[in-house]
């Protein structure tokens, strides 16, 4: 298994400082033990044990702190990558649905209130991907883009509910304009998110 561990400069400095402090403490401890062993005291074994426990605790605490920091950083990076991956996938699905709806809207021009056009509006204008994906869009999509997408799907909903209206031609044109704008914006955002993904 090939794993690469990246250590930042700040962490490297902390490791070096920790090792130096630990070495100094161990050096003082060894000198103290040697001096105490010359006096043949009965409590020497207890003192040596205590110093060993203290130095082991210090070393263990430092190592635990560094490992925990590394794991938190990697965990945060993993969560961010998952969010980017999810948003990237959802935006591609929504973009595809908007492109399809744009083609459907093109087929309705010029609009006439016939049964064929009503059937196209009812059966072909889609919002399934939007309904499924919109709750999962992450912070990688801006508020403006999200509002544009909401406006497109509101417009589609209005078209579906007012297919007998005399204003439907203007509603279709407005939806097409919003769709083109959203597709351009989604294309740019999809490229940015694709570049953020770690393969």
Structure described in brief:
The protein has helices at 9-38, 44-107, 115-124, 128-133, 143-161, 168-196. It is mostly helical.
Q: What is the fold-level CATH name, i.e. the topology of the largest domain?
A: Four Helix Bundle (Hemerythrin (Met), subunit A)
Q: Average pLDDT, to the nearest integer?
A: 84
Q: Radius of gyration over alpha carbons?
A: 33 Å
**Cα separation of the termini:** 17 Å
Largest sheet: none
**Shape field:** rod-shaped
Strand content: under 5%
Query: How many separate helices?
Result: 6
Task: Summarize the topology.
Blueprint: H1 9-38, H2 44-107, H3 115-124, H4 128-133, H5 143-161, H6 168-196
Helix pairs in contact: 1-2, 2-6, 5-6
Characterise this structure.
Helix content is 79%, strand content 0%. The chain has helices at residues 9-38, 44-107, 115-124, 128-133, 143-161, 168-196. The chain is rod-shaped, with a radius of gyration of 33 Å. The two termini are 17 Å apart.
Keywords:
single chain, 0% strand
């Amino acid at each position: 298994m090939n794993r690469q561990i990246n250590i930042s400069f700040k962490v490297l400095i902390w490791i070096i400082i920790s090792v130096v402090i630990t070495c100094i403490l161990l050096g003082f401890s060894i000198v103290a033990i040697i001096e105490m062993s010359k006096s043949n005291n009965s409590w020497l074994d207890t003192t040596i044990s205590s110093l060993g426990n203290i130095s082991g605790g210090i070393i263990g605490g430092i190592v635990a702190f560094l490992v925990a920091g590394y794991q938190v950083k990697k965990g945060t990076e993993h969560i961010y990558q998952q969010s980017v991956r999810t948003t990237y996938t959802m935006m591609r699905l929504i973009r595809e649905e908007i492109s399809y709806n744009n083609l459907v809207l093109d087929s309705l021009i010029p609009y006439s209130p016939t049964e064929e056009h009503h059937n196209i509006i009812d059966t072909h204008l889609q919002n399934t991907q939007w309904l499924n994906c919109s709750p999962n869009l992450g912070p990688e999509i801006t508020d403006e883009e999200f509002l544009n997408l909401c406006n497109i799907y509101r417009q589609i909903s209005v078209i579906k509910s007012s297919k007998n209206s005399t204003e439907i031609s203007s509603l279709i044109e407005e939806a097409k304009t919003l769709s083109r704008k959203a597709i351009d914006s989604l294309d740019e955002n999809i490229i940015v998110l694709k570049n953020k993904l770690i393969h």
